[in-house]
Amino acid sequence: MNRFFLWGIVLCLTPAVFCKAQTAPKPVGPLPSSNQMRWQQMESYAFVHFSLNTYTDQSWGFGNEDVKLFNPKELDCRQWARICKEAGMKGIIITAKHHCGFCLWPSKYTAYSVENAPWKNGKGDVVREMADACKEYGLKLGIYLSPWDRNSADYGKPEYITYFRNQLTELLTNYGSIFEVWFDGANGGSGYYGGANETRTIDRTTYYDWKNTYALIHKLQPDCVIWNDGGDRGDLRWVGTEAGFVGETNWSLLNATGEVTWNMLHYGLENGNAWVAAEVNTSIRPEWFYHPGEDGKVKTLPQLMDTYYHSVGRNATLLLNFPIMPNGLINKRDEKAALEFGKTVKETFAVDLAKMKQATASDIRGNGKKFGADKAVDNNNDTYWAPNDDITTASLTIDLGKPTSFNRFLVQEYIPLGQRVKSFTVEALVGGNWKEVANATTIGYKRILVFQTVRATKVRLKITGSKSTPLISNIGVYDAKQILTAPAVIRDQSGKVMIIPADKESLIYYTLDGSVPTTSSKKYAGPFQTDGKLNVKAIACDASTGKSSPEVDEKFDLPRKDWRILGVDEEKAKAILDGDPATVWHQSQDKKMPVDLVIDLGKEESLVGFTYLPDQALWNPGIITKYQFYVSQDNVTWKLVDEDEFSNIKNNPVIQTKKFATQKARYIKLRALKNTEGNDNTGYAEVNVITN
Ligand code: FUL
Questions:
Q1: Which domain holds residue 657?
Q2: Domain finish residue from 295, 329, 348
């Protein structure tokens, strides 16, 4: 018998098994495009927010800000690129044009650009400098171009669409390869609009004619992905919040057409018919643009790591924003935080305790080698473990070889063939018994689970539900160093200060004189009474290692013990003054706006501004978007001292700070003119004043 004949017999006898052992499982659509795959593998990249509102301390420019304000004397895009590169990011998206309409490049189509600014005598081009710096540092470049333009006289008319596309063409033609375009859906209606100073409404679903704009992008930049929150489905989706997290369940799917609800944005859609992956966008400070008042509010290492685990660790990418200062640089504090963050991510995932360890599985496709359990720990994302077709529950066990401590579990699906896994658990073999250490729902491109350190000899991934056969391309097991979290500081209405650690074991040290707290500072022994203006800085320390958390820096203005909220149920309304951002009071008056909040400060004060913290619960109603602020000496005659919008408060409900010229007054009135729902519900977590 010759060899070929023998092989023939073998093949005929076991055709199904043989084929299965060699051929890949069938895809389960929708599938990611090659652009979406490339983008997902970038994992984290930066945003830079820089425009005329950098010079006016605003969140959104109105469109009438003077171009002459733009003069970043020390502008250095290489500094931005260096920081992002060192922080492990793979690209930078620049706000080429924000809502105010000011262009960071010399656009042929408007005078409202760097060309008419004093910076470099009008010869400068920030987008060019950014593109050059990205090239030098091996980063990709992305473009934010706001569809809403509060400067353009044509906004709202068909002519504006031509203008918008002309600008897009400039940006996608003259600056090399662009990896992502970002079309913000925000639109507050009112604007300068070439001097009209009016409110213009557009129909988000039809006005921009996205279909033809997308065709233009595909023609000019075929490798570019599209983020769009305002209209037709792009390649990527917003996650419904700017606070830095996507849902614990996160499908990279949506429906190609039809309504998109908040839940769909946040969790994706298990049976969606289009691949629209999630991007978590958040700022390293509360706001997107630079505000000097937020210098003490840069996200700490624990906050940034949480953001990482809740974005990259939940099958999304992380788009982390750096506000650029008026001088054209990233602030040193943001730089320090970003570099610490990048270093910690690198260190945490440097040693994979599962790599090349012995792995076995409950089921293997065709019982062959090509899809064996070892493919999940072979350090190659192009190979994967696959059970047989139609197996939707299965397990894979990794023998760590010896008792090993770990507290992070990373797992990846082979998504070129679709996202499949619906639920899974992670178990550790401790003292001969299997113990569940974590469980979760979806996996997708990458899932990282965080749990308390466990010491075990084996670790087991149990897929407990899947849309189809699960395909696992990678598993990693890590032992992350503990990071101490900064405590929270609250001052209640009576002036009592409470410093609250994130865990029970830490010791707290604090200062009240603005100096940096150390373990030699005063030890916190419980709430203490204060009076007057106050700056509390505090750290949490691990008593056994002596290590300390980042510092928390809270400034408090007047004590509020004699304040009264007038004309309402004061007992309930007091939530506004209790210093606790988690408590809130809502009111509505006569079912129509305006709705007033009147506070008696107890005595005359010298006021220069106020702050408003809206309801902090996710997507709670009653967030004020437009307001007037009045002061009075006698609660009879009122003087209007400020009228404005709280820009972007819906997407980013952080504390709003408004300043005005000094006013002597005993009574204040915050009048809500408009809220997020168009009704008269107004919610307040905190209201405070700023004094001279
Ligand atoms: C929001 C905008 O309104 C903010 O100003 C910021 O640009 C953020 C990234 O998107 O919707």
A1: 564-691
A2: 348
* Shortest-distance atom of ligand 1 to CA 146: 7
Distance (Å) from CA 239 to ligand 1 centroid: 13
- In tens, the pLDDT along 645-664 reads 999 999 899 999 999 999 99
Note the pLDDT of residue 11: 46
Q: Which residues line ligand 1 (CB under 6 A)?
A: 59-60, 184, 186, 281, 288, 648, 651
Closest C-alpha to ligand 1, atom 7: 288
Same domain, 501 and 364: no
Atom of ligand 1 nearest to the CA of 651: 11
Q: At what angle do helices 210-220 and 158-174 cross, to 10 degrees?
A: 20
Domain of 512, CATH number, reads: 2.60.40
Please check whether residue 618 is in contact with residue 677, taking contact to mean a CB–CB distance below 8 angstroms. no
* Residues 210 and 103 reside in one and the same domain: yes
Query: Omega before 594 cis (within 30°)?
Result: yes
| pLDDT digit string, tens, across residues 528-551 | 999 999 999 999 998 878 899 999
Place of tokens 């084996």: 458
Strand, coil or helix: 160:
helix
> How far apart are the C-alpha atoms of 591 and 164, rounded to whole Å?
40
| CA 692 to centroid of ligand 1, rounded, Å | 31
User: How much distance in Å is there from the Cα of 281 to the middle of ligand 1?
Assistant: 9
Cis peptide before 30 (omega within 30 of 0): yes
DSSP state of 467: S
Distance 98 CA to ligand 1 centre (A): 8
Distance (angstroms) between ligand 1 centre and the Cα of 186 equals: 7
